[in-house]
Design a protein that fits this description.
By secondary structure, this protein is mainly alpha-helical. It is about 80% helix and about 0% strand. It has seven helices and two strands, in the order H-E-E-H-H-H-H-H-H. A two-stranded antiparallel ribbon has the order 1-2. Helix 2 runs antiparallel to helix 3 (about 50-70). The radius of gyration is 15 Å and the shape is globular.
């Protein structure tokens, strides 16, 4: 894929992550953050565009959503956590191939575990208590699971459209 085209698709996906994160925002039970649909689009970006695009869409897109949505205290953590989520998925897909089978689903699960562990530590640091981190786990498991479902369904639908031809031209 040409650099300009990849840059445009990365920026588009970054904006989509912001919109998905902000449009369906539900305050989390731990009262420190919110649940959202952005993870599915981070995984999609990494799957179709690779690790750097996944890092940018995940880290920068999600951090922008935190800043715009009034959760700026999360933005530095989000930049790193969601960026690593996208980076890992992109690198792993590069090694395993792009076709939705059990391996790719397992990689998405591992990517979401990175997010869950990252926010565990972020909340433990912000609340200065392991309980703060522990309270974040159920909501993040739910969010990660929903992100995986969005990723699988959307990736399968996009693969039927032969999106690879558009991306590779």
């Amino acid at each position: 894929m040409k650099k300009t085209k990849k840059l445009v698709f990365t920026a588009l996906m970054m904006a989509l992550v912001v919109v998905a994160t902000m449009a369906f925002k539900v305050p989390s039970p731990d009262a420190h953050g919110y649940l959202n649909l952005g993870d599915g689009f981070i995984l999609l970006t990494s799957y179709f565009l690779g690790p750097l695009s996944g890092f940018l869409a995940g880290g920068v897109g999600s951090a922008l959503a935190d800043i715009i949505g009034g959760y700026s205290y999360y933005a530095p953590f989000t930049l790193i956590i969601k960026g690593l989520e996208g980076l890992f998925m992109g690198f792993a897909i590069g090694k395993c191939g792009r076709k939705i089978y059990w391996k790719q689903i397992l990689l998405a699960i591992i990517s979401e575990i990175i997010m869950i562990i990252g926010y565990f530590f972020a909340l433990a640091i912000m609340t200065q208590s392991l309980i703060g981190g522990i309270l974040s786990i159920p909501g993040n498991i739910f969010q990660g699971g929903l992100g995986i479902i969005i990723f699988i369904l959307t990736a399968l639908a996009l693969e039927k459209t032969n999106i690879h031809r558009i991306l590779e031209d």
